[in-house]
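Deliverable D4.2, example record:
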Amino acid sequence: MILPENSKKPLKSARGQVLILFLLVLVLGLAIVVSVASRTVTDIRITTTSDESNRAYFAAEAGIEEALKQLQLSGSFASPVELDFTSLNNTTATVTSSSTPVSEYAFPSVVDKDDVAQFLLSGWTGSAINIWWQEDASVEVSLVYQNGAAYEIDKSAYDSTKSPPTPGFSPSTASSKTIGTFTFNRYETFAIVSSTPLLLRVRTLYADSAIGIEKANAGDPDLPGQTQIVESTGKTVSGVTRKLQAIRTFPALSSLFDYVLFNGGSSALSK
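Output generated by the structure prediction step:
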């Protein structure tokens, strides 16, 4: 039986269809391979960046610890300092320390009843300070200053909402002010009686309270910085950086200091 001529054409065209199918399978396979390879490269990059980020963080943390250690031991830290951590693949940390003057400052935590918040005034030449607190408490303010070769204390006490005030206490002024994260509603102006003030200590009475201070006169210089800010920047060889900051308050005398009697003379104390 002889088939018509046109019945053989589909057999010839089938060769081209196989080639097309082969190319489609090849393209699909390449797409899958490229996708998997791209995902693998991305995962490797993320893992590498994460590892370097951790090394930079640990270097910055080590820089903070080194600065705090030196401040605790000697009270000072030469700034800036470059630290090289060979154990972290030559990761480095740049550490700086600063204490910036402020016009107002709030003690960083609420002061417990009968406890003391201490503020530095060494070198300050202002004439008065506003003491801020919260109305349920009263405060006792002590200024430690130098008088020639002697150290002396000037004290004042202020009531909160009591009227008349407690004997020996002065009344305070009702007002509202926010310093930092604390809102205050009582204040009083405390005069600086010496040109060489050293410390201002504020004791809370009757209740816990936040304590804040501000210079009372706009023409006075800013108050000395009340905290030391330590910043440490860790950096890897490839340039990944991480920065940490620690805020350190200056060492303070115990609350027992205000009850201690010191005899600077040669004779014994007597009642």
